[in-house]
Amino acid sequence: MTTHTIGEFKARFSDILEEVRRGAIVGVRYGREKKPVAFLVPPERAPAPTPRKLGPLQGKAGFRLKPGFKMTDADLLGL
């Protein structure tokens, strides 16, 4: 695994993405203390997403969509 400061990351962005594409894990460090703030991993090495729970409304709320309901991404985002 390699790590880069924010400045190095910005300057070498394309090269770093190529490293990740080839399977490398790359860390990004930030601030005066150069603390790790992020890791870039290839998609096949990333943890599987877990379903989100509704929290306190779980089992108490729900919704239904009418047949034929359509909404574009722009409509959803209010664009």
Task: Give the neighbour order of strands across the main sheet.
Answer: 1-2-3
Note the gap between the termini: 40 Å
CATH topology of the domain at 1-42: YefM-like fold
How many beta-strand runs?
A: 3
Reported for the largest beta sheet, the result is: 3 strands, mixed
Provide the structure class.
Answer: alpha+beta
> What is the helix/strand order?
EHHEEH
CATH class of the domain at 1-42: Alpha Beta
Q: How much of the sequence is in beta strands?
A: 15-25%
Helices, by number, come to 3
* Helix percentage: 25-40%
**Spatial shape:** elongated
Low-confidence stretches are none
Radius of gyration: 20 Å
Overall average residue pLDDT: 89
CATH architecture of the domain at 1-42: 3-Layer(aba) Sandwich
What does this structure look like?
This protein is 25% helix and 19% strand. It has 79 residues and is of the alpha+beta class. The protein has a domain at 1-42: YefM-like fold, CATH 3.40.1620. β2 (26-30) and β3 form a beta hairpin. The two termini are 40 Å apart.
